[in-house]
Amino acid sequence: MGPVYTPYDLGPILVPGDWFGDLMKDTLIPVIEKYHLPPTEATYYWILVDAQGNVKDVVLHTTSENARFDQAARAAALHLRYLAAHRDGKRVPVWILVRVSLLMR
Prior knowledge:
The chain has helices spanning 18-26, 28-34, 67-77; strands spanning 13-14, 42-49, 55-62, 82-83, 85-87, 90-92, 94-101. It is of the alpha+beta class.
C-alpha cells in the first residue's frame, strides 16, 4: 500500500538533536563528497510516520536524478525521528512528503 491521506490536527515534528548530524555524516555527506554533488542536492520522499513517531516506510516521490544520492537519502529517511502526529488528541500514523537533503530542517 502506498501513501494515503490521513487528516491530522498536528503534524509530525522532526526531533532535533545531535543524532541528525551523525545521520547526515553516515548517509548523505559521503555520497555528496564522493560524487562532487552540490550541497543543495535533494530528493522528495513520502514517509510513513507511525503513531509512535517511527518511520515505517519510505517511498520515492521525486528523484534527484542521481540514483546514488536517492539511495543515500532513502537510507537517511528511514532513520529520521519524529514526534507523532495527532488528531482529536490521539496519536495517528500519517504519510508526509519530505524533502531530503543536507539542508533539512
